[in-house]
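Chains adopt folds. We examine one example:
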Amino acid sequence: MSPRTLTGWRKSSHSHFEENACVEIGTGPGVVGVRDTKQPVPRPILVYSATAFAAFVDHLTAGR
């Protein structure tokens, strides 16, 4: 899948706006993309399966 097909990019609620230190996620059919706004354009994008990304988030938020 091409990163250009990812849509709905949004910033993490934990991003630090004053330093332009933002992590954004975008979605596509069955995948989630992650990019760092500090990187120059075109920004590299890590693409994960939606299942793997959900497992990652579940692990991070376990016990909360």
